[in-house]
Design a protein that fits this description.
alpha+beta, five-stranded antiparallel sheet, 5 helices, 10 strands
Amino acid sequence: MHPAVGTPPLPGPGANLHILGRLESASNATYLAEAVLDGQPPRRCVWKPVAGERPLWDFPDGTLAGREVAAYALSAAAGFAVVPCTVLVDTGDGGGALQTWVDVDDDLDDLVDLVPTGEVPAGWFPITEGLSAGGEEVTLAHADDPRLRRLAVFDALANNSDRKGVHLLPSRGAVLGCDHGLCFHVEPKLRTILWGWAGTALTPEEAELIARAARVAPRVLADLVTDDEIAALTDRAGRLVAEGRLPYPGEDWPAIPWPPL
């Protein structure tokens, strides 16, 4: 298992959380922090307080932190291992989600990029075309990489509505995902840049991961998302396994988040 997946950022009582600075690129209040325990080196984390969540029209207020933790709980319990360890922390003012910091050591451009139209690298999937800020024709594309595919399977299961390029964390040979606050809605809302495998057959391993997730979801997601959202997830899992393939983009919801990277 990738060390960032299984190392709790705040292991038990007695830890102190020190804010180091705000991550300005995040849409909600997000901070770089250190969790400090007596006698142990500080651990860098990402802190997302509930009080800093912007209201959304389609997700209930104050639920994004729980969804972040739910994504980790499902990923870990089912065996996907694609989400850094994330826990809920009660700070007395609404609390929030605390996630292990992942040091990204590979170039994200090796996995997903905007390239000149007609110049998509061999072994990459073209996803959509558009114009760059300078008016050039460009294509959003991503690599045919099994680590990205694992995330695509997880996103289809979790109904991730916000898989952008910046949410990919290539590190130490693994590719993890972050920012799962917009997952687990009861309505179909899959919105991602990882459409390269749409319609392709699930492997036996992928089908087993999905089936296992359906079995553990009622236990590991309890108190993190609603009963209806858990039921919707188990229904999605059943459909994915029965159909035996990754889904195509829907027609009633934007298929790609903005900005994509």
